[in-house]
UniProtKB/TrEMBL annotation:
Keyword Membrane attributed: yes
Parts of the chain that traverse the membrane: 66-90, 102-122
UniProt protein name: Positive regulator of sigma(E), RseC/MucC
InterPro entries per record: RseC, SigmaE_reg_RseC_MucC
Keyword Transmembrane: yes
Domain of life: Bacteria
Keywords attached to this entry: Membrane, Transmembrane, Transmembrane helix
Record organism: Clostridium acetireducens DSM 10703
Amino acid sequence: MEEYGYVKDVKDGLAVVQFKRKSGCGDNCAHCSAQCDAPPLTVDIRNTLNAEKGDKVKIEMDGNKFIKLSAITYGIPFVFLIVGIVIGLNLFKHMGYKNYELLGSLVGFVFLAISYSILSIIDKKLKPTDNETLSMTEVIRLNR
């Protein structure tokens, strides 16, 4: 996966790069009636090519790593949701509740919330190495 962004700032060996976020319906927003405004995405990336403020840079991410991170981001909450629903259904059904489906669904959503909390904790611990996931591969000097 590769994207192009602009260096907004350089500090402590890191480049603050801003990307234009692509909307879900494509890049031709002028012809879209939804009028969605996708805010820019800003990330800190190790400045290995000595990019300067205002430079356009090419950023790459290994496709396998992207798929792995996506699977973690979406897979873990999905598994927690399903496991919570199954546990809740079985628990409340054996306890004799008439509305065990509703209660089982609520337990599933509680498990979903727990999974997001776990992912948040993991994300905070991995944040310092976040710039290892992305790599700067090209600098296009615009200020010269």
